[in-house]
Amino acid sequence: MTSSPFDLSVVLSQIVAAAPVLVAAFAGAMLCLVRGSRPLRVRIAVGCAVAIELGSFLGWPLLVHAIFQRFSPSGNAWDAGFMMIRLLSSLSSGAVLGLLLYAAFTRDDPAPD
Q: How many domains does the structure of the chain reveal?
């Protein structure tokens, strides 16, 4: 029997496990949309960070499954699969942190006279 590249039970279990993060990401996205007192570039940076975080939580099971199907479970190829997953996770986290730091420490635009 062949394994399907899309396993709904894995995706649903990941969504349930990540429910607190998903709720916080959804709330952050709503705040970005309705909070007009912050500069637009700050709202865009936070919105992108929330989108990356949300996408990584929802797409993570599919990505891991695809990477491990690509590499055989033996020796260096298996280690390369783990290294690729760790690298992608680190890049995602770094992008989110960078966007949030930019949003936190960017100067507000001066009010027009």
A: 1
Q: What is the pLDDT of residues 56-90, one digit of tens each?
A: 777 777 777 777 777 666 666 667 777 777 788 88
Q: Residue 23: phi, psi to the nearest 5?
A: -65, -45
In a domain, 2, yes or no: no
Domain for residue 30, yes or no? yes
Helix (H) or strand (E) holding 102: helix 75-105
Residue 113 lies in a domain: no
Contacts of 12-16 spanning 24+ positions with Cβ under 8 A: 14/57, 14/58, 14/60, 14/61, 15/57, 15/58
Q: What is the extent of the structural domain holding 27?
A: 8-105
Cβ atoms within 10 Å, residue 84: 16
How confident is residue 97, by pLDDT bands cut at 50, 70 and 90? confident
- What Å distances lie between residue 100 and 3, 35, 39, CA to CA? 39, 16, 14
